[in-house]
């Protein structure tokens, strides 16, 4: 049925999706206009120039681009040129990812860092047109990994222009956490005006799960999208020195390990005087380089970023990281693009590894290379996906639908990095990213296909 819809809709030909987000990286192959017809004559939008962005960056795919900064300026002052572009260009990656998920062209041999997830990347409506409305900006003095800030008046101005420009679908992978009444909710107000012009608004549900009543975007006239898993995982098992293999190891770290190495538990290789609970989590400056050098270290998740735990292991001379869930998180797996060979295991796997470490005088292990594997059951709800009930009116059931939002491969800003951390100097054209921000544009793309087939719905 999916292939029939694509064909009948001509892959979304001439449908226009407006994306309100952090901008776009126009050079991405996902936004090529090769083989596309001229811009529809009904289009009223513009290609607004700015820093590192001129009219040549718009084409028959990206048919419009604007940016909105007055609200940001009123609160934070001028945009810092070292943190963001004062233009529709995306310095973050989030906007490029969502835009290409909704309407990116088919790109063969697309892959995340290190060739992970290689295959054909395609948006839901690959022949639809794209209009960019940059309303979200880097937070001053904060790392990109902390997320962007989107000011009410900038988002509302973007929606207003999108309506006037002539978009067919609005895709907003953003939301405001305040439980405001609908007449004080900027997205609810803007999307209601869009609805009066027969423009559908698709929004993300938020990443506040599994807490109840954690939803954003609860207006009945928008489609609110939750996030679920897909039938693919990135397997990176751990081979122990006794021949046992921990199959449920998962990773998107691109660094391969070709041999066995000594294996240690972080608590046992702590620096003198460091509390055990800090060393167990591989917190900064907790590991003894004399005891860690040349070894794989088993750490548990906890305080701080998971990527920083790998950095602590690497700084102490370690060659690999096995990042284990604590008992509370069970066997839920967290994927991270580490700077060393690394994999994540559930709590059960961690217990098995610990038993092995203490069963022999010279424990060893190898982290096996990452491979894409089929996963069932799928789909499954992502733990972070926000839940109901609707906090404004419990009679209006939300979210409306779920879509893939876990480790989604899509285009990325080359001004950013896979982790968006300030010390990550790596660059990638495509990135794996998770959240209801990623599920929302899946539905936006499908909505464009349906509108192409049923323009009078």
From TrEMBL:
Keywords: Glycoprotein, Hydrolase, Protease, Serine protease, Signal. Residues 261-348 form the PA domain. GO terms for molecular function: serine-type endopeptidase activity. The active site is at 21 (charge relay system), 94 (charge relay system), 437 (charge relay system). InterPro entries: PA_domain, Peptidase_S8/S53_dom, Peptidase_S8/S53_dom_sf, Peptidase_S8_Ser-AS, Peptidase_S8_subtilisin-rel, Peptidases_S8_3, SBT. Residues 12-457 form the Peptidase S8/S53 domain. Signal peptide: none annotated. One of its GO terms (biological process) is proteolysis. Belongs to the peptidase S8 family. This is Uncharacterized protein. The lineage of its organism: Eukaryota, Viridiplantae, Streptophyta, Embryophyta, Tracheophyta.
């Amino acid at each position: 049925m999916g292939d029939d819809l694509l064909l009948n809709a001509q892959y979304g030909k001439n449908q226009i999706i407006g994306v309100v987000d952090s901008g776009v990286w126009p050079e991405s192959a996902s936004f090529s206009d090769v083989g596309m017809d001229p811009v529809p004559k009904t289009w009223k939008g513009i290609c607004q120039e700015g820093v590192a962005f001129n009219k040549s960056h718009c084409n028959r795919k990206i048919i419009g681009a604007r940016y909105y900064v007055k609200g940001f300026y009123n609160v934070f002052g001028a945009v810092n040129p070292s943190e963001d572009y004062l233009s529709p260009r995306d310095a973050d990656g989030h906007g490029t990812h969502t835009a290409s998920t909704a309407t990116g062209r088919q790109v063969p041999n697309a892959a995340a860092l290190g060739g992970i997830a290689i295959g054909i990347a395609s948006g839901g409506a690959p022949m639809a047109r794209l209009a960019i409305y940059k309303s979200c900006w880097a937070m001053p003095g904060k790392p990109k990994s902390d997320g962007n800030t989107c000011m009410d008046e900038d988002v509302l101005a973007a929606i207003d222009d999108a309506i006037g420009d002539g978009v067919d679908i609005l895709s907003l992978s953003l939301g405001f956490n305040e439980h405001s009444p609908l007449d004080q909710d900027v997205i609810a107000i803007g999307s209601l005006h869009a609805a009066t012009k027969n423009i559908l608004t698709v929004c993300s549900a938020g990443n506040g799960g599994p807490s109840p009543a954690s939803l954003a975007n609860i207006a009945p006239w928008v489609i609110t999208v939750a996030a679920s898993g897909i039938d693919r995982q990135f397997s990176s098992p751990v081979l122990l020195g006794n021949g046992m293999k921990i199959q449920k190891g998962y990773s998107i770290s691109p660094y391969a390990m070709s041999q066995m190495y000594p294996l240690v538990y972080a608590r046992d290789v702590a620096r003198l005087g460091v509390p055990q609970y800090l060393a167990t989590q591989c917190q900064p400056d907790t590991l003894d380089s004399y005891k860690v050098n040349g070894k794989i270290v088993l750490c548990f998740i906890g305080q701080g970023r998971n990527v920083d735990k790998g950095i602590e292991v690497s700084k102490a001379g370690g060659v690999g990281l096995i990042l284990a869930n604590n008992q509370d998180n069970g066997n839920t797996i967290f994927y991270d693009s580490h700077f060393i060979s690394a994999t994540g295991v559930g709590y059960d796997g961690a217990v098995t590894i610990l038993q092995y470490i203490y069963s022999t005088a010279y424990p060893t292990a190898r982290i096996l290379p990452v491979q894409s594997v089929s996963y069932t059951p799928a789909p499954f709800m992502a733990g972070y996906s926000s839940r109901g009930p609707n906090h404004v009116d419990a009679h209006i059931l939300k979210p409306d639908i779920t879509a893939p939002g876990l480790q989604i491969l899509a285009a990325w800003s080359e001004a950013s990095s896979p982790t968006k951390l300030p010390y990550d100097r790596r660059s990638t054209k495509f990135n794996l990213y998770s959240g209801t921000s990623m599920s929302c544009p899946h539905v936006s793309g499908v909505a464009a296909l349906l509108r192409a087939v049923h323009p009078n719905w």
